Batch of 3 targets.
Target 1
Amino acid sequence: MESVREHMRECPSESEIAQVVLQELEQRGNCTMEELIHNLPEYSWNQVFTAVDRLSREGALMVKYSSRVDLYLLSAAQARSGNPRQAAPQEQAGNGL
């Protein structure tokens, strides 16, 4: 079966790119924005960032700051493990990006 990513290479819409971003995060688990962009070379930085911003505002994607490595980590919301917690107010407002 063809993946969403393979199917939507020609002039993808924002929602199509968002589907590809979620598919990538569900397969990879946590990753940085740079890793995500590196793994989606067929899309521009701006296209990926716009999808991440939209998905995080919709609650489909989590953006978490890791002070241990001084990076923001992205993950699909349903891929979270452990106890669910509310994002800090500053993360909700700007999603940390």
Target 2
Amino acid sequence: MEKRTKQRTCIECRKACQKGELIRIVRTPNGQVEYDPSGKANGRGAYLCSLACLEKALQTHKLDKALRMKVNEEDNKRIAQEVMSAVLD
């Protein structure tokens, strides 16, 4: 029997992709917001398909809704910077 590939949906454009292809942002159990390059961190996750979708999600507060918390400007900037440096490497 074939193993199923897990699919997730981008919170901004609603495009469904394989889990490993997406950018995951996680709200940890202690309330921190972090970029999760492994895709396995404990907590509530939100998936984005591209840097453009990340920027739009931060502007339109869709990340706040997906993580069920208010993400402050400092965290927004830090997350965007972490994702850009990881994607460009």
Target 3
Amino acid sequence: MRQFRDLCTVPPERLQDIQDEFERSMEAGLRGDEAGLDMLPTFHRPAAVRVRGYEQGSYYAIDLGGTNFRVLHVELPFGRPIPAECFDTDSGLLLEFVADCIDLMLQLHPPGGDGVPVIGFCFSFGVQQTALDNGALVRWTKGFYGSGLLGKNIVAELEDTFKRRGKRVRIPAILNDTAATLVALRFRDPQTEVGVILGTGTNAAYRERVRSIRTLPGGYAARSERMVVNTEWGDFWSDVLPALAGVDDAIDARSVNPGRGRFEKLVSGHYMGEIVRLMLLQLARLGGALGGARARARARRGALASAAVTAVDDAAEGDHAAVDAALGALGVERPSHRQRQLLREAAQLGTSRVAVAVDGSVYCKYRGYRGLMADALRDVLGEDSAALVELREVKDGSVLGAAYLAAACDAYERTHTVSG
């Protein structure tokens, strides 16, 4: 356990090294260097198509993430788990499932006006955009696999799915969940500059000077000074990151995208339970932490859910319910005090390597991350500068931001059509 503790501890000077490496990777991505982060332009220019906070009308938003698919009609959201068969994108079932859910929402809340629903599309995967409503899928993450839809315009593909059903929808904007979270908070606070997600996956978007984005199409005419950039920071990797020997490499090797999303695999909710399980298995081989071969056999891959890990770390000292439930999932039926303490420490180490988010299940449901994030900001920025950074939770920010931007695009297009 001492070795794990040393590997997971990130002192202030190492945080500074990580920050320097990350900035270099961002700058390389903005130049278009392959060694850098993707740094994908979103073509959302807040000064051109601005969410002003007083848009009116009937709008819809959809949010395709790593766990659930959600449809929103201004006030009444509902969500459904994404069926397992849809994660195989070669099956062709994913967009059919999306269309089924939208159809249900349209039956519950029919569109007004000309009867054509206006939908903002929050798509939590990297897309190479050439316009606000045109984005080609770069790669799948969060457990999706296959070549289905890779390189294709997701907006056009979804609109075609509806055309085959004899229906018409209008999707004026596709945006990542991080960009949508940024938009959602700017709806209430125009000073918002960054949107961050830590849930099933992790990513960030921020407002960048257009002149710094060298990957925009030749001859692109900027209508505003800044554009939202999707960093795709889940792909960030550097030797200065606090990797666990024998744990993180194993998770990467067994994933559906080996070699990609290494940072995401260190910190996101999708992998947290597996990180702690592998830590405990290593301890078991050394000192019988799980109480014998039978228990170790039951501690198979996927046995420990990420939600169970955060529940353990959130549990008060002396409250054994969450701890015993997690150990039970690993095959330990009558845990000892030592086993409970080992699990508590493993859970704390597995969740403390990084803490960054303003939306997402890990940030919103696991209160320990908020304090860790505040501590890390003070370590990197210093007390005075950290005090100028306000972290604000944006509940349902991804899907709300998509709806707000759809409304802003619709208002912009109507105004310019009339005035033109």
